[in-house]
Amino acid sequence: MTPSVTIRLSLAMCATLLLAACATQPVTPSAPWAQQAQTQAQAGHPAAAAAIYLRAAPSLPSPQREQIMLKAAALLLQAQQPEQARTVIEHINPQDLSSDDTGRRAGLAAQVALAEHQPAQALAALPTSTTGLSNPVAAELLELRAQAERLNDNPLGAVEARIARAPLLAETSALDANRKSLWELLSQASPQQTRQWLQQATTPPLKGWLALALIAKSTPPQPAALAAALANWQQQYNLPDATPIIEALKAQWQAMQVYPPRIAILLPLTGRFAPVSTAILDGLLTAYYRHPSQPDAQPITLRFYDTSAHPQNIPALYARAVRDGAQYVIGPLDRNAVTELAQSGAVSVPTLALNHAADGTQIPAKLYQFGLIPESEAAQAAERASLDGYSRAVALTPNSDWGKRVAAAFSNRFTQLGGQVLATGRYDPTASDFTPAIVNSLNIDYSDARRRAVAATIGQSVEFEARRRQDVDMIFIVGDPRQARLLIPQIRFHHGIGLPIYSISTAYSGTHDPRADHDLNGMIFDDAPLLLDAQGPAAAARDAMHTNFPDASRRYPRLIALGEDAFDVLPYLGRLASEDWARFPGLSGSLKMTPGNVLVRQLEWAQFDNGLPVPFGQVGTSNTVPTATPAQQNADTPP
To answer: Whole-model pTM?
Structure first.
């Protein structure tokens, strides 16, 4: 379910609850018009019910008139008519309302703003305090505040609203839903962000939840380590509402120890993809040897199958691996091979493919899809830019099938969020001068053409300074490190100074090289925790990777992270598939399962400052990510 759909459903739920709250007020239910309105509402015609209430309202005394108008506004929101609801709300005199009805009016105004993608306006409409309100009304206002804060790129504000909401809820289902939303917010924050929030937190409940989230993000995957961390946490905090989360964490850590004894690995071990497979194997074997042996458990056996030797018969190779005793399969890697396997009907054991099948492919229940998918990164870039307040973009991408797919992913998500991609410039990926794509997408050539037209009309030369189009407020670029280092200075040369630039992980080599990356200053991009985390398991894994695989860690660091996560996540696939709030703290990203059994990597955000990546929002500080390796060209683009 997309965030926009989720928001619409949440708003409809809030409107229904506020409507129910309004129904508790005396509104002469025996009147014929009231009975007609209730009949229309029960029949699924909220707009018709609202119209009946609005016709009756002028003849009623206060406060019945205002209460009937509140019901009508809630019904109009149910009917997805926010403009009409706003008009009704604006005509309700707040001086004639009780405290609870004043709160309901504020909640309805906030819902109108959220329905129109205006979270800041929603926050302005909501009261800053819910003191004096009944628990149901206060709880719904805090629900709206949590939604608005999240959409306004203030997840900590959303967390605080959900913590304040919990004591007001009486029903177990409402408590469970609020806790689930709270933990999802906490799970999406990076370890650095969580640590920073914890340092700034002042209330015990907020400190407790943040400390628990940090345990989930930074504790090694051994039950003893988790038990020690939780014991220390419980000595400091008393949060009964966190008990289900604690039990889920214990189950997750325990599940991470239960591996099937026989695992088959299907990778192209020879041929042109062999270097990629070798890096993935480096990660797989790192995780394998890091995994502690369990008493009374069978040893884990890995068996490798070379898909390069059977490119036209992947299902037969898979069937052979299962006959050999495989209880889990990791692979294949090639997109066509994944598609062929998915369509074959041969998938009989849990299988983690390291790529995605072609669009439209029916995915078997036991086939999970995982990989370094740049389209997902581009969609997250669109979400980041939208949260940062930008709505009119220009995209610059390589003129290749890969570049077109990534550009389309950005454009589709940006459009869903209410933005518009004004132009897409496609550059020659082998070139060094990207001027044609830049000037075309920024309409600079159009400005020059206008000068020539004016000069021809008046018959004399015209003084002219080239200008770019003024309706764009951000640029999204796609490319490898070489291309990004060339693109950004050329964008600035062609009058793009001041425009924020967003990109994806392919633009960063993965190793520190301030001299080469100085031209990337200001660029905002998403990448794996392995490359951005300064502390915790990801930072320790990065140090170990540099030591154990000095060459591969320069060329394929993200593929090594993919290999480690592919092994580590195996016991947790079922839980990720069954619990939509569940997250796995991987090195390649925070992993969640989406429909189609797709493992999506929630990445972290950084911005270049003085040639170094800095956690997003901390430009100007010294919190850069340490690394011990020299720079080398990134080569993590998946096949």
So the answer is: 0.69
